[in-house]
Write a structure and sequence with these properties.
heterodimer; A: alpha+beta; two-stranded antiparallel ribbon; elongated; B: mainly alpha; 3 helices
């Protein structure tokens, strides 16, 4: 059994890692919001999704969080009529990625909020540790 | 059993509080995990009631008694919200709990400090 405060720091760190992966995926989605396929009629960039899973770390008996899977969003692509576009099919329609800016922004905000909560826990745990160390300090 | 009961109790409470902090950080880390239910440790009063009933061990292979508080005792009771993914962690509620732990820990170390000062005064 590891020290519970050390375990607490480790858990919060796993949360930070998971949320930053989520932010990375949001960044990928936003950057590729207009990425079309290379050839006429081909599929464009597909939106990526992140799922988290609870992972029990056997060595320290703590429930960490890990990124379970980075999957693809199966919702339909947007279609626009742009006959001059290099990726347009024979009828002049271009398939655009299934990315909604508002959804990505909401996801980013939530990732941010969860990241902050994990940071708060690290701060609080550090305070607990320093309060314990303060017991050793000479009261003068 | 320590000679001075107060130190034993405060050490026990510090241990309980740090276990609770671990439970809270587990909940916050899993704030976006689908289907996750928040956990908590059993209340400190129950830990205090259980003391004195542990198993005595005289060899390394002997069974250890219930040492320290058990985590994951209360599964998601009285959670503030349940999201559509089945996750029942409320960040606000968990941060309030973390604050409670912090305050109790400060009180605990403060009492130990004051008591230690008192002892030193009588020794010197």
């Amino acid at each position: 059994m590891v020290d519970p405060l050390q375990a607490s720091l480790r858990i919060a760190a796993s949360g930070l890692e998971a949320q930053s992966t989520r932010l990375r995926v949001v960044a990928e989605n936003l950057a590729n919001a207009q990425s079309t396929g290379p050839t006429p009629g081909s599929d464009p960039y597909t939106r990526k999704t992140v799922t988290f899973a609870n992972a029990l770390d056997r060595a320290s008996e703590t429930n960490l969080v890990k990124v379970d899977d980075i999957g693809l969003d199966r919702s339909p692509f947007r279609v626009e009529y742009q006959p001059g576009h290099p990726a347009a099919d024979e009828k002049g329609y271009v398939k655009l990625p299934n990315i909604d800016m508002a959804v990505e922004m909401a996801d980013m905000r939530e990732a941010n909020r969860s990241y902050e909560a994990n940071l708060q826990i690290i701060k609080r745990t550090r305070e607990l540790l320093s309060m314990t160390i303060d017991l050793l300090r000479n009261p003068g | 059993m320590s000679q001075i009961h107060l130190f034993a109790v405060s050490a026990q409470q510090a241990q309980w509080l740090s276990m609770r902090q671990t439970a809270i950080s587990g909940n916050i880390a899993n704030a976006n995990t689908p289907g996750y239910k928040p956990v908590d440790v059993e209340p400190f009063e129950r830990i205090l009631d259980n003391t004195g009933l542990g198993l005595e061990t005289s060899a390394a292979s002997h069974l250890h008694g219930a040492g320290g508080p058990r985590q994951t005792a209360r599964k998601g009771e009285g959670s503030w919200q349940v999201s559509p993914s089945g996750n029942a962690v409320s960040l606000e509620q968990e941060l309030i709990k973390a604050d409670e732990v912090n305050r109790a820990y400060a009180l605990n170390t403060g009492i130990v400090k004051a008591f230690h000062r008192m002892l030193m005064m009588s020794v010197k």
